[in-house]
Predict the structure.
Amino acid sequence: MKNSLFKILIGSLFVLSCDKDDISQTQADEFVKFYTYYPEFTAADVAVTPQGYAVLGTAKTIDDATWICLLRTDEYGNSTDSVRLYGISDENGADNRAYCLRAMSDGGFAILGSVRNPNTGLRSVYFVRTNSAGDIVWTKTISRDGDVEACFFDVSSTESFYMTGYYKSGSDGREIWWFGLDSQGNDIRNQRVYGFTSDDEGTHLQILPDGRLVITGYITRASTTKAFIIKTDENTVFEALFELPAGGVSETGNCLFPLNNDHYLLLGTAASASGSQMTLKSILMSNTTQEIEWSKNYGSSVNESGGCLLHDNRAIYILGTTTLSSSNTSISLTTTDLTGNQSGRAEFGLGSRLFAKSFKRTTDNGFIILGTNIHAGPNNTSIALIKTREGAGL
């Protein structure tokens, strides 16, 4: 289906929810599904499974509590089981948030979220390991003397989990935070913190082949936000920091892809008074050199934000959000060659309020895209799942 037709398709499907009776002949190749099980249902992450897909989100229930929610679907996006809710109860109103999901080799799932401690009111990292049905195998709550949240994790070859986010104590600003758990939820590294008394946060992390970590996010300097890359040693101890030059704009690092131990692709969002653009940079960060090898900007409007990227040795794929107005926000999929030159672009949901969150390649070389859809009126937020066929964005 051509991109222009897909825009029409997504507009015509806004009223649909999940129903096995609406399967069409081509639905395994491309579909749009909206999940409206809760008054507010916001997207966090998506994973590809042997049966179809797994969707992670934050669900706000009718009692005003929020929960980490796992939804499993078949290859057509139709729900195959009851949803699973995770988190900590609180008599003052549960406040649990979903962030990151991985499908594991045993068929189960690893889920990263956060919870509010009902006794202290502080936020803590909450990690859940489930079986293939979504039932809890173990959980881990990670706390400090202040708020601590992680928004992303990566999995090692031994199925250990390394995560990054922020730590905030008292009136001090946020600091970059990272930590590791083994496959059973035991601590395998001390909690690490790096930052200043401003507003710093880790947003994405990758494990290098030699066991070191690379982390990106943002650091605030004199009211200007700068993207960064932190590199650790094999014991996750801080080793080096590369603060990217601001160049008169505020920039965040959103997603990092290691090409090898010293070369990285960094997707970010650069914002100025006139608007924002998605940025993609090739970074060299070795023991002797820290430099930007090339930098490209993308966007078709005055406000574009980068979400995440994929790389398959043939092309680079960038998921983002395009904002034309307060009531017109769409999901974009930009394709470039391996040096960042744009070769194609698709947009989904023009004229709606769709916000991109996550995407993965599918077994047929298409994409499964997860986003949040905001309708008019109160209690109006649903999760959108978009399946494209091979070639979308080209």
